[in-house]
Known about the structure:
The structure is a single chain. Helix content is 69%, strand content 0%. By secondary structure, the protein is mostly helical. The chain has one domain.
Amino acid sequence: xxxxxNPVSDLLVFLTNPxxxxxxxxxLLLAGFAIAFSAWQREPAQRSARNVGIWxxxxxxxxxxxxxxxxxxxxxxxxxVFWMKQIVAHASIPLQAAMVxxxxxxxxxxxxxxxxxxxxxxxxxxxxxxxxxxFAGLGLLxxxxxxxxxxxxxxxxxWTYGYLIVIQALFVIDPPGRCLGLEKPxxxxxxxxxxxxxxxxRL
Length: 203
């Protein structure tokens, strides 16, 4: 009897698949660990179970976005076109269906690479902990698009995208890059803070 896929076997396949995105993912993963270790060593305030938990969650979510970009690598748009057509057929808002049908699908050679790049950047942002509020917000918009577009699609559970919306919204409210990431919190001291720190705090 053939063994059914399971989380462990799927993870091993993902981590060992001999294609170039696998090597890039390993670089990002190791960089994420190195950044977290550096922040842990440098800043005592970062050494908490909460920060470790948030770091792990954003690493997992970054991996999800990265993995979901793999079947959209240009110029392979077959899967993307299929799901775009599902939105056309089942979108809960007619305007969305019309825009996808008349604008996106006829210009998939333009929108396909843009969507791929956006999902890659969201994944990189979360894995490294940089500009996470900005890219979590963009991820939130993508999740909203899927939720509305595939709300009535066969064999789709709307809450799947609902949970993704909630997670991305939480990342917008409380940017996870401030926990063992590159978005170092501004230290509470009497000294002035650098412009870089101010930008990081706002993002």
